[in-house]
Structures are given as structure tokens and as C-alpha cells.
Automatic annotation (TrEMBL):
Domain Radical SAM core: 16-232
Record function comment: Catalyzes the cross-linking of a glutamate residue and a tyrosine residue in the PqqA protein as part of the biosynthesis of pyrroloquinoline quinone (PQQ).
Keywords: 4Fe-4S, Iron, Iron-sulfur, Metal-binding, Oxidoreductase, PQQ biosynthesis, S-adenosyl-L-methionine
Organism in which the protein naturally occurs: Rahnella bonaserana
Associated pathway: Cofactor biosynthesis; pyrroloquinoline quinone biosynthesis
InterPro entries listed in its UniProt record: 4Fe4S-binding_SPASM_dom (IPR023885), Elp3/MiaA/NifB-like_rSAM (IPR006638), MoaA_NifB_PqqE_Fe-S-bd_CS (IPR000385), PQQ_synth_PqqE_bac (IPR011843), PqqE-like (IPR017200), Radical_SAM_PqqE_MftC-like (IPR050377), rSAM (IPR007197)
Domain of life: Bacteria
Root EC class: oxidoreductase
Iron among keywords: yes
Signal peptide: none
Protein name: PqqA peptide cyclase
The enzyme's E.C. designation: 1.21.98.4
UniProt cofactor(s): [4Fe-4S] cluster
Record family assignment: Belongs to the radical SAM superfamily. PqqE family.
Length: 385
């Protein structure tokens, strides 16, 4: 507090803007076992979940601060029986609501209930464009047909639908079939997102990272489809996300630490990004603090805000305001120190690790059945280890 009695304001520090986007990770439970799941490796250790009332309090506080969009994700958010109630509460508060689901556990009845609750948008993820590969990757033989049926039902209910395909070395060569399937299902938007290496995907990186040639081929196919479809109104948007492992500059992760994005884990830990709980940083709980306190005052949310925390080469880099030194989680996973520049950056002294991973992608022969699948037993093992 200033001597005048007014709160002291540090004019040198840029003002922190409120969060725009709240990700409610309702649960880590999931019927699928994807080997690239971004949930923590030791998810089985964490069984507690916020109650309906506790979630609604989080929504109220986020909305009061100015957040406009909410994503319900997990795990598989459909396993929460109170999902319609949570959607309704968020919608009544004025959020734009988005359900991010595998489609497993979805029924026509639930789609009806979500529509009545005011859900704005549904994103369904697929593992592949055919039943066999989808089953091998998801660890669930019935998943593909269920997803197809639910994608059709979502469209029939008049929802704008996003289909999300996580691409990796075992399915990226089928990208043309994946786009054909998306057109057939009348998707409004298609995200062809090459695996980002967090959680289980990082554990399986050698068996998932595509080669540069695979990515170049896929990019070419996407380009051809875009040209073919331009103007015919078939598909609103075809987004292809390449892995940062083939970039020379890192991504501006989360649009900056504590800048626009706030994630809350199933048991109520508030994070500036969904992967941050692995960092050796103390993060606050929504059970002990208001979101206002968490966002503006907590140690964890302020740790990597601004530029003062940066060591070289980021500190004097002319691109730091664009990429913020890259991803803190990736810097930690690869170098053991989250303060370091993201090794994706060619200016990083650790960039050789990225070059080695690219090299490894050219000669590895890991098959799908050799990947580590996300499941409870694996998670327990990793936790014990
Ligand atoms: Fe956590 Fe990038 S995923 S900062």
C-alpha cells in the first residue's frame, strides 16, 4: 500500500489482463487408452474430483473476472453425470460452452440434454479413419462405430461440429482418408493436429513422432484438398498443425504464461496450462483461494509472466515478445529446468535433443503394439517408479 493510502501500482509492470478461456478438466477418468493422452502419467493417483457446486463456484468466479469461453474436457467429460447441470450453469452465466469429447458414452438422449442445457459446440476426437487402426490406438474395439454414430447425431441436432484427429507416424499417411471421412460426416471444422509431446505422448515420443517426409507429404495432401474444396462449401475449415519438433523457433505456448488461459484440474488445482502440474512450481487450489487471487497474486501464475524471469538466450532475443521463450513444460521435460529456453529453438544450447529426435524418427521401427498405453495399471506402475 502506498503512503497516500491508495494501492501502490508498479507502473513498470504491464497490467495483467483477466483470463479469457477456462478449461474445466472435469475428470481424469476415460474409457479409452490412447498412447498420446496429454493427461499426467500418474493420473491414477488422483481420484478426487470437485463436486458440482464447487465447479459452479469456479465458473462464477471466472465469469466475474471476464472469462468468455469454457471448455469441458478430461479425461472423458461424459463420465460426469452432472455434465448437463454444469453446462446449464456455465451457459446461464453467459459462457460460450464447448464440449471436448471422444464421443464414447455419448447417446442421442445426452445430446438432447446438452442441447436443452444450452451447449454451444461439440468437438469429437477420432484416432484414425478406419475401424482397425482406431481400435488399435484407442484400446477399444467398438469406439469407431460409436464415434461415427455420434458424429452423425451431433450434426443431426444442428450443432457446429469440430472433428479432431491426433496425427502421428502410424496414421499420418492416411490423411487423405481422414479428410474424406470428415467430409462424409459433414464436419464444419477439422483439426488435423500432429501429436504434441506431453504426458503419455512424451513417454511414447520415439514411437509417435512422424518423419519430416511424412509431414511434408501430409501437408501437400491438405493443400490439395484445400484447393479442391475452395468455394464449394463442403468443409468450413481444415486446420493442419505440424509438430514443433520440426520448427526452428518455439511456439508461443498458451499465448503467454498466465495471459489468457486458465485450466482447473479434476481435484481443483489451478494451472496456467494443462500440463503445468508436472513442473516443480507450487500451484494454488480453487478450494483454498478465489480465482481472482489465483490469477493475479499466486506464485505459480506469476512465475513466468512478463520477461524478467528469462535467462539468455531468451532475455536478449528480439523474438521474445512473440514466443515468450517457448513452452515451459517442454523446457522442463527436456532439460530438467523450466527456466531454460524451449529446446525447439535453434538458439537453445539444448537444441541438439530436438535434432536427435528428428534423426531417431528416420530409423525407429516401433509398432503400435509396442507403445505404452494409458491405463490404470500403467499409471500405477509409473507412479510407483
Ligand atoms: Fe505448459 Fe507449454 S504446455 S507451458
Amino acid at each position: 500500500m502506498h503512503k497516500s493510502g491508495l494501492p501502490s501500482v508498479n507502473l513498470l509492470k504491464p497490467a495483467v489482463k483477466p483470463p479469457l478461456w477456462l478449461l474445466a478438466e472435469l475428470t481424469y477418468r476415460c474409457p479409452l487408452q490412447c498412447p498420446y493422452c496429454s493427461n499426467p502419467l500418474d493420473f491414477a493417483k488422483q481420484e478426487k474430483e470437485l463436486t458440482t457446486a464447487q465447479w459452479i463456484k469456479v465458473f462464477e468466479e471466472a465469469r466475474e473476472m471476464g472469462a468468455v469461453q469454457i471448455g469441458f474436457s478430461g479425461g472423458e467429460p461424459l463420465v460426469r453425470k452432472d455434465l448437463p447441470e454444469l453446462i446449464r450453469a456455465a451457459r446461464d452465466l453467459g459462457f460460450y460452452t464447448n464440449l471436448i469429447t471422444s464421443g464414447i458414452g455419448l447417446t442421442e438422449k445426452k445430446i438432447d440434454a446438452f442441447a436443452q442445457a444450452g451447449l454451444d459446440h461439440i468437438q469429437i476426437s477420432f484416432q484414425a479413419s478406419d475401424e482397425e487402426l482406431n481400435a488399435a490406438l484407442a484400446g477399444n474395439a467398438k469406439a469407431f462405430q460409436q464415434k461415427l454414430a455420434m458424429a452423425k447425431a451431433v450434426k443431426a441436432h444442428g450443432y457446429p461440429m469440430v472433428l479432431n484427429f491426433v496425427l502421428h507416424r502410424h496414421n499420418i499417411d492416411q490423411i487423405d482418408k481422414i479428410i474424406d471421412l470428415s467430409i462424409e460426416l459433414d464436419a464444419d471444422d477439422v483439426e488435423l493436429a500432429t501429436c504434441q509431446f506431453y504426458g503419455w505422448a512424451q513417454l511414447n515420443r520415439e514411437g509417435l513422432l512422424p518423419t519430416r517426409e511424412q509431414i511434408a507429404r501430409a501437408e501437400n495432401v491438405v493443400h490439395q484438398y484445400r484447393e479442391k474444396m475452395a468455394g464449394n462449401g463442403n468443409l468450413a475449415n481444415l486446420l493442419f498443425v505440424t509438430p514443433d519438433y520440426y520448427e526452428e523457433r518455439p511456439k508461443g505456448c498458451m499465448g503467454g504464461w498466465g495471459a489468457i488461459f486458465l485450466s482447473v484440474t479434476p481435484e481443483g488445482m489451478a494451472l496456467p496450462c494443462h500440463s503445468a502440474r508436472q513442473l516443480p512450481v507450487e500451484f494454488p487450489s480453487v478450494l483454498e483461494n478465489t480465482l481472482q487471487e489465483i490469477w493475479y497474486d499466486s506464485f505459480g501464475f506469476n512465475k513466468y509472466r512478463g520477461f524478467d524471469w528469462m535467462p539468455e538466450p531468451c532475455r536478449s532475443c528480439s523474438e521474445k515478445e512473440k514466443d515468450f521463450g517457448g513452452c515451459r513444460c517442454q523446457a522442463f521435460m527436456l532439460t530438467g529446468n523450466a527456466d531454460n529456453a524451449d529446446p525447439v529453438c535453434s538458439k537453445s544450447e539444448h537444441h541438439g535433443m530436438i535434432l536427435a529426435a528428428r534423426e531417431q524418427a528416420n530409423c525407429t521401427n516401433i509398432q503400435i503394439n509396442q507403445l505404452q498405453f494409458r491405463n490404470r495399471a500403467n499409471s500405477q506402475l509409473i507412479f510407483k517408479g
